[in-house]
Design a protein that fits this description.
2 copies of one chain form a homodimer. With 157 residues, the first copy, chain A, is of the alpha+beta class. Helix content of chain A is 34%, strand content 32%. The longest helix of chain A has 15 residues.
Chain lengths: 157, 157
């Protein structure tokens, strides 16, 4: 029975890259659960979507769609920074990970993090980093991360 | 006298963007004071330099040259991340800030940070962030930053 449930979940919750039609599947409303995220027009969404898409593998947004509800229930992004250090090494930066409040407890966050980490590894990064609150430390430790430094911020607005 | 000294320093320590000839002025050796940074060939340097230059204002490396010694004595980079949150907002990420051990105590680190922060502000970012050790917290607080989150890392090699 257990494996059937897992299989059913895999069919219901599809992990993939962001598509332009995801704006109509609640992608922006999901981001609103993360932080300040005003609604934007379809044109604004399309412009940013195409801009990010032009970066190819250097900027990827992962989503999980609940195909039963046609709804995006989890997301996260990773972009690849190119450096001179570490023999012109690359670093993956994970940002904006969020799981819908109605879809917690199904390991969807772990799936998103795994997708982004795998992407960073496959594009040749020597490490992947992210900033999170103390509250989320345990979650990322379960995903194989360790705390290293502190994050400093300066706001302009 | 004091203003003359300041003026002389301004002439001696020139703040500008990285140029391709900076490899011959100790740019890579300076980065070696920051972290693991193997030497790279001129071709490898040129390839990465041109790749980063193609990003225009979205990736900028600041250097300070001691024009008396023809030597790069401080550097730091900032890249601009484009998001969907905050009305398709942008965030500046500061990385790889280092001052030559023989050129400390002259506020060169503050000048580099100021250059990078100004760049992020002028390109329309709503905030600028960086990760640093506890030891460097006080320095960045003097530059107007505040601690917000913690940095998590996962190494692949």
């Amino acid at each position: 029975m257990e494996s059937n449930t897992a299989s059913t979940d895999d069919q219901r919750y599809q992990v993939r890259k962001l598509e332009i039609t995801d704006k109509n599947k609640g992608f922006m409303e999901l981001l609103q659960q993360l932080t300040v995220c005003n609604s934007i027009t379809d044109d604004e969404f399309q412009t940013r979507f195409e801009e990010l898409k032009s970066y190819g593998d250097d900027h990827v947004i992962c989503v999980i769609e609940d195909v039963k509800l046609c709804k995006i229930v989890a997301t996260g992004s990773v972009f690849i920074e190119k450096k001179f250090i570490r023999s012109c090494g690359k670093v993956g930066h994970i940002e904006d990970v969020v799981v819908d409040s109605g879809a917690r407890g199904m390991q969807l966050g772990k799936k998103v993090a795994g997708f982004l980490v795998d992407h960073a590894r496959l594009t040749g990064c020597y490490k992947v980093i992210l900033d999170c609150s103390e509250d989320n430390r345990a979650f990322y430790e379960k995903c194989g991360f360790k705390q290293k430094e502190i994050q400093m911020v300066k706001y302009f607005i």
